[in-house]
Specification:
This protein is an alpha/beta fold. The protein folds into 3 domains: about 270 residues, Aldolase class I (TIM Barrel, Alpha-Beta Barrel), CATH 3.20.20.70; about 70 residues, no CATH class; about 120 residues, Double Stranded RNA Binding Domain (2-Layer Sandwich), CATH 3.30.160. It is built from 18 helices and 16 strands. The strands form 4 sheets. An 8-stranded parallel β-barrel has the order 1-2-3-4-5-6-7-8, surrounded by 9 helices. Helix 3 links the parallel strand 3 and strand 4. The mean pLDDT is about 90.
Amino acid sequence: MKVKIYDTTLRDGAQATGVSFSLLDKIEIARELDKLGLDYIEGGWPGSNPKDMEFFKRIKSISFTRSKIAAFGSTRRKNIKAEDDPNLLSLLQAETPVITLFGKSWIFHVRKALRTDDDENLRMIEDSIKFFKSKDREVIFDAEHFFDGYKDNPSYALKTLKVAREAGADCLVLCDTNGGCMPYEVDQIVRVVREEMGDCLGIHTHNDSGVAVANSILAARIGVKQIQGTINGYGERCGNADICVVIPNLKLKLGIDCIPEEGLRSLTRLSRWVSELANLTPDEHQPYVGKSAFAHKGGIHASGVSRDKRTYEHVTPDLVGNKRRVIISELAGRSSVLYKLKQKELGIEGPADLSKRLIDQVKKLENEGYEFEGADGSFELLVKKNLGKYKKSFDLEGFRVIVEKREDGSLISEATVKLRLRGKIVHTVAEGNGPVNALDKALRKALRSSYPQISEMHLADYKVRILDTGAGTEAKTRVLIESSDRRDGDRWGTVGVSPNIIEASWKALLDSIEYKLNKK
């Protein structure tokens, strides 16, 4: 069995709150969706804005291996000929091989939104589809509000599909536009429609009831041949069906072919890449592709996966390009620590004794506010200190940070760092655009001549979390720093905790430098 995947990230997904793709973003996403192996990529609505029209002009010069580009728009306006409708002419000018037309299938919308009669709406559907079929286009008909329309008036909703099919539509897509349809309703309605209309069906679901993916998968089991959705489920209101979840469910759970195997293995990377372009934080708990989708925090869970991955994982993470993670925390047991040590290839002897010491230390530190979930670098330093493999690179004599507000309105941060390095005192000063940046610069300046390799690393992310917020300005602060190595691509997180945000930042910064200097 084969199901075609129709992606509408560039149109429906761009309607999500906070998402605004540039023209170049849209072109690059289209390229990546083609590499993923999708059947259709909806580029936008050319009659609605200049950016979409420019997208269709540019995309014509790009060759796609697998995907067809679709332009999206509405059926003709009431009481006008199809060939005179500006919206249809804009769709034609896009010169895409596929046209996706949406039309009303709910009488309530026909009368309230279109303000026309039932028969004119049917003529609008028929005329618009015939117009594009006469231009040798593949036409997909999106029956907007179909499920609500069917529940209100099944006869009329089905009539809109019949008119579309007779006009030449290549696929009839049942849309749950308001996202309120339950799975049992989808099951009942799709079965009736398939019996009436045959196999040329698709489904387009929204997630307002939290069941967009479930409804899409259920429809595929019944025999729907096309599923529409977006990367990461981006879309209007609560979003659309998330094809990053739909695709692996189809392939791995139902055995339904939809994209090539190599595309499936690139799913996690693509999901996170699109998040970055959308300027949205990736959902760590997103099924299949989230950072925590295969993360194990409880000691019993870590013990289970260390023996057999099937104990707490429903699929193997590398099938979708993800990775297994074992989290070190106060909930960790001996198995969690041993798994982490093995993963880091730290070469431990006497693991039972070491793991107990480490668990006790981690629990004590987490009680003080530390967190090692995102601080693998700090955890590895802790292990090396317990193994006697930690090499102290320098001693801190002291540091000072000054923040000065000047008359011209500028704010200057200056840091002074004094270190004992190889028997000598090194004293440096540096300015930065903030106190942490100034400290980072001053520390690097002091170390660079003795440890030139620190120029290969840079600070990639900096997060501050206020603990026990009820304590007000006296609350403890936890700082997480993520660093990366330009030389080998390594990334590591470090953590620092203190009632003083500068000291917490210093501790995390110090661990990040020490991690780099203690690498094999």
